Amino acid sequence: MADQQGEQNRRQDEQGGQAGHPGTDGPPAPEGGDARPGEGGPGDHGLRAAPRGSAPIPLSVLDLATVGSGLTAAQALRTTVELARLTERRGFHRFWVAEHHSMPGVASSSPAVILAHLAAHTERIRLGSGGVMLPNHAPLVIAEQFGTLEALAPGRVDLGLGRAPGTDGATAAALRRTDRLNEGADDFPQQLAELLRFLDDDFPDGHRYARIHAVPGPVQGTVPGGVQSADRPSVWLLGSSGFSARLAGALGLPFSFAHHFSAANTLPALDLYRQSFRPSAVLDRPYASIGVSAFAAEDEKEARRQVLTGALAMVRLRTGRPGLVPTPEEAEAHRFNAIEEDFVSGWLTNVVYGTADEVREGLDALIKRTGVDEIKITSNAHGPEARLRSYELIADAYDLPTATATATATAVAATATATTATTA
């Protein structure tokens, strides 16, 4: 009987549905709570923020809490907090953190935990996952975690979802407690449908989960005496190929593409998203963003010196030797072989780096070429001070609101002091 019920539920979830609930037959899910005063518009639930300063589109941040050589995860996470506060002061729209596992140089293995901490240290900037790797988790757990985040930071939580593991196959198997890794990716539309049902608390009668509720969530507004906010996390699909692009378009959801490590697929994926797009209760027209690796310094030589640290870290990761992000001195002293040099050359081709003006010029060209609605800037470099300064320079290049000199100096000094104290 249980197997028959499970098959009935699967068929119910795989029947053609409307936007917001892939593979289900319920109503589309609203994306409440996205708008800031004076931003957004009808049919987009506030996803479309007004650009700040002279930027042509909103600028956002994607952070990995990178851990540099000689530094600790605690220092990396403190830098993430400082970066979130800095970019909030400077008028960046969103601050997302990624999910990666078993990588010594990346401390963002638990996005929901980091986002809860960031919610306590920020006031306005939208916070989100870039993203949560859905096959690694039970949909109910994600709904509960991000329902909790929404309660902590009402109206400013994004739930970005990916279908990749965010790690190697062995680690993915450990996370999922199974060796059938393709099953999770292949079931992504069904898992997404289930997650959206939990977020909206609207499984149809007769479904095996109809009496199960994600809390915090809408059910709290339906019980006697209950009062529940209309807000719920804004759901995005993330991708580095065409699968999620097509699915996001078909469901009328916002889409974010990983240009920073899959640049060759950027334009085809964006075209596929726009061609597949169907208006929904979430969006009346496509909304696409891309992750962009960018780094600004006082001069081009110093910028290249900094981005080379991230390039060397990627060489080591891709050759099965993951480690901490090396120092600029270590990266400069490294003797790259021919294969490594070829990889670094290709990698840096897709990194926008240089002076602030050069970075702005490169970002403007990329925005024009892709036609995206928003960019999420990520910087993979060794030192916290250099990374914070890079975002300051980019903000200055786009005439974003100016943070007070005292606040900025205090943030950088606090990070430097913490670094010195820990390494002493």
Short description:
The protein is an alpha/beta fold.
Write the H/E string, N to C: HEHEHEHEHHHEHEHEHHHEHEHH
Cross-sheet strand order for the largest sheet: 1-2-3-4-5-6-7-9
Shape: globular
Number of strands: 9
Instruction: Give the structural class.
Output: alpha/beta
Helix content: 40-55%
CA-based gyration radius: 21 Å
Strand content: 5-15%
Q: How much is the average pLDDT?
A: 85
Question: Total number of helical segments?
Answer: 15
Unreliable sequence segments: 1-20, 23-43, 405-410, 419-424
User: How would you characterize the largest beta sheet?
Assistant: 8 strands, parallel, barrel
Distance between the termini: 64 Å
List the helices and strands and how they pair.
Blueprint (H helix, E strand, L loop, with lengths): L1 H13 L44 E5 L9 H17 L4 E4 L13 H11 L4 E8 L5 H14 L4 E6 L6 H8 L4 H6 L1 H13 L33 E6 L2 H10 L3 E3 L8 H11 L11 E9 L3 H19 L9 H6 L4 H12 L1 E4 L1 H15 L3 E5 L5 H14 L7 H19 L1
Parallel strand pairs: 1-2, 1-9, 2-3, 3-4, 4-5, 5-6, 6-7, 7-8, 7-9
